[in-house]
Amino acid sequence: MHETIVALATPPLKSALAIIRLSGDDCFEVVSKVFSHDLRNTTKRNVLVGHILKNDEIIDEVVLIAYVNPKSYTGENAVEIISHGSMLIVDEIIELLISSGARLALNGEFSSRAFLNGKIDLLQAEAIDDLINAKTHEAKKISLYSLKGETSNLVAPIKKEIADLLSQIEVNIDFPEYEDIEEVSRAQVILVAERIIDNVTKLIAEGKQGQIIKEGIKVAIIGKPNVGKSSLLNAMIGQEKAIVTNIPGTTRDIVEGEINLKGITLHILDTAGIREDSNEIEAIGIKKAKAASADADLVILVRDASQSDDDSFLALVKNKKHIIVYNKSDLAKDKKQNTLYISALNKDIDPLLKEITDTLSISQEAYDQPSLNNTRQLGLLGAIRESLYQAIEDAKDNQPIDLVSVNLLSAYNATLEILGEGNKNDISEEIFSRFCVGK
């Protein structure tokens, strides 16, 4: 029996309305203790208008929606109470429900129950959190693919192919005396595994692009003092967030901004100018600047077009995806060929924005298709591919077929883990702890 849980499903702010959510086998009985209508004999979804009562005192007039299992989000009996949006009223209603037998829900517990009750798989569950946190239309669109189950459909064929191969091997091992059973050869394992690897490799490539669209990228702006890094940040985000002066060392800490560039969120970090001759406070900023560039997905190295080049910064970006841009183009005497010039002070940065888009190389297809696009999913795809590579090596080395199947089984288990079909309790504890309470 699942105990009844309760939580506020809308933000804890003053508003016109608030939604209080309950789920559990006895939630109709719990709510009936404080509601002006008796829900205990409810057999189908129902909408009621009534009062929340504390003894004979009216706490609020509410709209109540009752959902009968399994036709609810969680797969259990569930109730949503739509009250007025005063936090005083909300808190009083929740306190009443707790005193009537409910308990306060844990983070993500409603979605966790939906997952455990088979209403959604783990990919759909993760998509709920992604949808809540989406910052762009494109990120929302990708999350909706997963929520609708389309991303899960990418894994199903892989799961089936590996399962078919494993089942044939198992039959060969257990019933070798039956001549009409097709024997699985090492060549067949290699053929099937290579085909699956090609599919998985394609999914990984598409997933990495989807991850950029969904999560955005960290962009660090680095360079010498007074090359125009802060002016560039201000031009990119469209507001005067960073202080701009002619005094070297003005920026001494990380200044952050965020923009949406063609559906991709850029988390931009303006760093302190890096130079050897610096005071103690400035040195701290320089240390942070170097750390930010090391952690960034893309580094923009800004140079002053009116001064000679300083190649000492190339060591910071040589192993990073980076763009070298010359600022103060209006002051440049002789412009080089095949070189990127901008004027951050004059807001002439379109060439840089185009270069960022080109460097990221996100295909149009990535915006319009489901993908396995978070670190957990991509890591498990990598594990599937690695296990299949090992199975191929074992087959080529003429290992016994039952030993070859060990790595096939590892690949199969990784597909189960992607969907959350392995140990559900262990997985859900980690995933759903990241959700908000009312979800």
Describe, in plain words, how this protein is organized in 3D:
By secondary structure, the chain is of the alpha/beta class. The chain has helices at residues 27-32, 87-99, 109-116, 122-133, 137-147, 152-174, 186-215, 229-237, 280-295, 314-317, 350-360, 364-367, 375-396, 401-419, 424-432, and strands at residues 5-8, 15-23, 46-54, 57-67, 78-85, 103-104, 217-223, 255-261, 264-270, 298-304, 322-327. The strands form two sheets. A six-stranded mixed beta sheet has the order 3-4-5-2-1-6. It has a five-stranded mixed beta sheet with strand order 8-9-7-10-11, sandwiched between helices. The longest helix is centred in the middle third of the chain and has 30 residues, at 186-215. Mean pLDDT is 86; it is low at 177-181, 247-253 and 424-428.
Q: What is the average of the pLDDT values?
A: 86
* Unreliable runs: 177-181, 247-253, 424-428
Largest sheet: 6 strands, mixed
How many β-strand stretches?
11
Termini separation comes to 20 Å
Oligomer: single chain
As a percent range, the share of helical residues equals 40-55%
CATH topology of the domain at 5-116: Gyrase A, domain 2
Superfamily at the CATH H level of the domain at 5-116?
Probable tRNA modification gtpase trme, domain 1
| Element string (H = helix, E = strand) | EEHEEEHEHHHHHEHEEHEHEHHHHH
CATH architecture of the domain at 5-116: 2-Layer Sandwich
- Report strand order across the widest sheet: 3-4-5-2-1-6
Which band does the percent of strand residues land in? 15-25%
- Just give the CATH class of the domain at 5-116: Alpha Beta
